[in-house]
Design brief:
Distance between the termini: 35 Å
CATH architecture of the largest domain: 3-Layer(aba) Sandwich
Structural class: alpha+beta
Radius of gyration: 23 Å
Number of domains: 3
Number of helices: 11
CATH class of the largest domain: Alpha Beta
Oligomer: single chain
Shape: globular
Largest sheet: 7 strands, antiparallel
Amino acid sequence: MNIIIIGTSNSVMTESYVSALKIYHQVSNISCGRVPFFYHIKTIKQNIELIEKSDLLIIDHYINDINYYHPRLGDFYLEECKDFYRLLSSLNTNILNILFPIRKKLNSQESDYYNFVKNLSKTNKIPLLDLNKFAFKTENYGDDIHLNRKTSFTVGVSLANNLRTLTEKPVHGGSIKKDPYIIFDSHDIAETNNYQKYDFKNSLIDITFSRCTDQIHLNNRVPCKLLSIGYFLAPSRKEEQGISVLNKRFSFSGNLYLHEAIDSFPSFPGDIRITVLNGNYSNTPSFMGREIVDGPFKDADIVELLAKSEIDLEVNPANRSYYDFELPDLNELLLKFEESLTENKSIAISSELVDILRDLAIGIERLNLDKAYELMKLVKHFRPDGVTINSKIKNYESKLKNH
């Protein structure tokens, strides 16, 4: 299966559920950690042809919203979320919306948003995998909103297994009739303002940014509001970066590529004009109030801006049906993995599941021999006399000893 993932921090962790999916499926992961769903909208628009050629689009967004964005942006964010799901409904491919579990007990506002997202999925016929329904324990978490790597990988094992047996019908008939979203990318910014462009690529991101040194002028014919900004902060930089929008200063926070909501959502009747901060500015808040920066400031490396005009989004929904995606073997996997770590005995699970776990270990041996060895030792508990399993364990032990 050809899978595209647009997610947040649960989808960018190393050795996570994504790693397990890659064993049996072709996966393109275009996720970014600390982002609102505006990043998802931007990414969908930039990659819509690729997405609609895929077999499945996996969406992971609500954790960041429930933990940070919705409490700060309120009802406006809820209205924008409705349009995000309308946009999803128009895509001509199968979609799975994953709700990662939360360790802490939700307050009333968080519960409201959680149920709001679930209802949006149902209303817009976006199939849902709600991991909050499963028996995760405290030790399965890295913190309140992230599963630890081993648990996430186990989720991926179960997800990969169940996706292999899934028969999806072709999705068609979706289209965008009126599109209010406008993306000004680094090419637009550089060309209009005669700025230089630079590329950056690592194992997670591949971006082009425009190094803006003074004023930014963007040609725009319709009234619009700015929703979010993508920027790049090099780890080696010596100065801070920031911009002024309608006389309100914002600093950039974080590291490498971020895509952040512009919390005041400034409106423009036409052309957009932004000033780059240069020099010393004290008490300059970052977007979404994450920190306060004093400077000095120099230049701004901007990847893109997402704006929205005043027209209403109109779509033709694709012929998709809603269902709750189930992982019937996940609780068993979580339990058996825990038991296998604490008990020196054979544990019975289905032969097919043992084959899957064995093949997963073999599939990752070139990428991470330690992880393959650890997984294969767990598999031995399920099939202690397995010829391939025991042979591989000896092979891994020899390689690790000589490494």
